[in-house]
Amino acid sequence: MMHSESQNSASFKMANRRWALKSLFEPRGVAVIGASPKPSLAKSILNNIVSFGFDGNIAAVNPKYTNIGSVDCYKSIADVPFHVDLAVVCVRAENLLSVLEECKRKSVGAAQIIASGFAELDSKEGRARQQQIQRWADDSATTVVIGPNTYGLLNLHRPIIAVGDDKIAKVVAGGVSGIFQSGQMVTVMHPLMSRGIGISKIVTTGNEARVTTAELINFFADDPQTEVIVSYCEGINDPECFAIACTRAREAGKPIIMLRVGAHPEVQKSIKRHTATQGPNSYKGDIRFLEELGVIAVHSVEDLIETVVAFNACRRPRGNRVAFVSFSGGMGNIMADSILSTPGLKLASFSHRLRKQLANVLPRFANNFNPLDLSAQSAFDAEVLTSCIEILGQSDEFDILLWGKDLPMSMEDDSVVGLALTKLMAQHPGVVVIPVSQMNGMCKDGEIDGSPPMFAGRALLQGTAVSVRALGNVIRWHASIASAAPLDTTL
Question: How far, in Å, CA of 324 to CA of 340, rounded?
Fold first, then answer.
């Protein structure tokens, strides 16, 4: 497939920017410009950089102070005695251009602009300021600009945590990277880490005056520490770059899960005062575009989180036939309704032979079809439980077995259920086994040792409808990968 001139231009731009973005995520020297001892976003960012063990050089920049806590403070970035790869800029909007000029003279690699007061003001003055930043960034050969109107960034593998979140108790490094136009979306890392899902990198992009979501997807497509990409997006600013980046991520085997907001006029008005994003396509146009590119479009934070968990819990399945097994007829009915209503999933229909085999070992009052209700009594009969799981495994009539349980708590590998499911996975490796709890959230007292609910080293799905939607997302994504024609997107 031949590139058009504009595609070549988009590819060249992203290739150059990809190299520059290393300063953002892998800095050796960091300066927080505008930090002070007073409670503020800048102070919280500086505290997090220090307290979470960043092992590079750290400086604060503010002419009023000589130190902020344990960090030396300098009058200007020109006075910082080491090379600054990353400047986190927390100054007033009207002072930003002069600070950026100082960053350029210092050869700063990346400027993460926290300051707001630009196009999101929906005023002539605010739009003019943002245009100035855009022109400056276009002309800068040394400093890449992220923002303005952002919340910061983090890389848990470095580690550097340069966000204003003061609720971070512990961190779990892993393979999920996020690109969020909204700062509060950074907190999605907390429920993910509590589920045993590690975070790689997160960056907030705000108004995207220069670096866009597309360019960051492109960066993560090549990042060996990123396995899954998640995004909160208020509009796709550069469709050509976005298409190239998403295709490269897909070809690298990295799913993209995006929450694109703005379905209604009221929300579009709010977006105008939040990040002032005005992409060339409508909301519906963007959703169609995402589907064409194989991007998983979700409509809630809950679906985004559960879809990430589903990718962790579900290795690539061989097909879409789902069997649901539990001790609860009610949960089975709820799950079967959801499975039958979810595109891409098929509720497996048990054959007469399989049903007869199950009936021979199950109590008379249990059913022998899918969804399979083993009955509460079977929970106390290890022989019945083990025999049923063995019969199911030998049937070859489903690809995914969802094991239903009540609460989001770990299923012990050496329990009767755990041993039976572990044996099934060992003897029939083509079958994907995923426990799913009827309830989601934190249950009373949680796990005894504070660890996340797991089975066989993988996260459990939580909730009924949301977990089935997430599983459907995973199945459809794998199917799209298998059927996708390769595209020439070499950068």
Answer: 12
